[in-house]
Description:
Largest sheet: 2 strands, parallel
Strand content: 5-15%
Low-confidence stretches: none
Number of strands: 2
Shape: globular
Number of domains: 1
Distance between the termini: 22 Å
Structural class: mainly alpha
Amino acid sequence: MAADEVEVEILDDRRARAAGQLCGVKRTADVIDASVVLGARERGDRVVTSDPDDLGRLDATLELIVV
């Protein structure tokens, strides 16, 4: 069952490269966290996470909902 509030994005070549670049700039290796940050930035979304430190390191302006 899908929810309108959830959007699944494909980690295609373009997004993977952009996530890798973000990781390089921020000196981290978590491409998945970086891809989440990029998607949230593009849509202006908040991110629900149990890992605010890593996501905050990638983008300190991102609005996080910590669970």
